[in-house]
Specification:
It is built from 12 helices and no strands. By secondary structure, the chain is mainly α. The structure holds fe (ii) ion (2 copies). The site of one fe (ii) ion (FE2) has 4 residues, from loops.
Length: 180
């Protein structure tokens, strides 16, 4: 997704993230989640919670999609992906996409393990691990939700939210995710 195209959406989410009622709004919305899913939701960064709430609020007509929207970015683990890495990632994405591809390829080569969490943990904490988490946050989220016993369809939607949509639900999630 071209970051410039959804600047109005990002500006709106930035404002929502500043709202002092964000926590209360999040708690109300998260009432539909299981205790473990709730923990993953509230562990998210303030901006990601505001973004997820905005996406979910536009998908209320489908309860499963609503829950998937609340949780789709819970793989952007705050302890692994600090603000600095997020800014560097966005900067490279916009101004130096080829350099970002090279950095991503290098991180992919260095990561090893059976699954996405093992590969993430095989990297030294810091920018390498942060870039890996940003690149694979859908799969990281899906692995955590699977472990939490979440619905299979919800896990699928979250895992694939950065990929080309394969059905109507995935398409709707992608559309709102890209817009906000
Ligand atoms: Fe995402
Ligand atoms: Fe998102």
């Amino acid at each position: 997704m071209n970051t410039w195209r959804n600047l109005p959406g990002k500006a709106l989410v930035s404002l929502l993230a500043l709202d002092p009622r964000l926590r209360a709004r999040g708690e109300r919305a998260a009432a539909v989640l299981s205790p473990e899913e709730k923990r993953l939701f509230s562990g998210m960064d303030r901006y990601d919670r505001a973004h997820s709430l905005a996406v979910a609020s536009r998908l209320r007509d489908d309860p499963l999609l609503y829950r998937a929207a609340l949780l789709h970015d819970c793989g952007k683990l705050t302890e692994e992906l600090d603000l600095k890495v997020r800014w560097v990632y966005t900067f490279l994405e916009v101004f130096a996409p080829r350099l970002l591809s090279r950095v991503a390829a290098r991180v992919e080569r260095e990561a090893h393990g059976q699954d996405v969490l093992e590969r993430m943990r095989s990297l030294t904490p810091g920018w390498r691990r942060g870039i890996y988490v940003q690149l694979h946050h859908g799969e990281v989220a899906a692995a955590l939700l699977e472990r939490a016993g979440s619905d299979v369809e919800l896990v699928r939607l979250v895992r694939d939210h950065q990929r080309e949509p394969r059905d109507e639900r995935a398409r709707r999630l992608r559309e709102m995710d890209d817009a906000l």
